[in-house]
Amino acid sequence: MPADSVAAGPSPFVTSLEISLAWTRPGPRLGAATLGTHRGGRSVLLGWLETQLGLRREPTPLFERVAAFAHALERTPGHSFEASLGRDRWATASALLERWDELRLAGWDGSDGDALPPLVRDLARTVAAAPGIPPGEGERLDVVVAALGRGQLLPPHRCVLQERLDSWPRQWRSVLQRLTLGPAVAASPQAPTGSALAAVQGQLLGAELTTVTPDESLRWVRARSAHAACQHLVAVLASWDGPLEQVTLCCEDRLAAALLDELLSRAGLPTMGAAGNARAHPALQVLPLALRLCWSPVDPQLLLDFLLLPLCPLTRPVGRDLAAAVAERPGLGSSKWEEALATVTDPERDPQGENARRVADWLTVERVPIGSALPAALVRERCELVARWARRRAMGDEDLPQGVADMLVAAERQAHRLASLAEALVGGLTEPQLARLLEAVSAGEETLALAPEQEGAPRLAADLAEIAWPCELLVWLGLSRDSEPRRPWSSGQLAALVRAGLEVDDGRRGLAARLDAERRAVCEVSRALLAVSTPADESTSAHPVWLQIRTSFGKPEPVVSLEGTFTADVARDLAPFVPGTAVREIQAPHGERPRWNLPHDLLEQRESVSASSLETQLACPLKWVLSYPARLKGAQASRLPDEGRMRGTFAHAVLEAVLPCGQALPPPDEIARAVGEEFDRRLPLDAAPLSLPAHRAKAAAMRDEVVKSSRVLVEALREGGYALVGLECELTGKALGRQLSGRIDCLARRDDGEEAVVDFKYRYASIFRGKLKEGRAVQLATYAKARAGPGGRFPKVAYLMLDAGLLLVPEPSAPRFGQEHVERVDGPGIEGTWADFARALEGADAWLSGGEEVPARPLLPPEEWPEGTSLVVEVKNGERFPCKLCELAALCGYEERL
Question: Which of 28, 528, 711, 781 would be 672's cystine partner, CB 3.0–4.6 Å?
Answer without folding.
Answer: 711
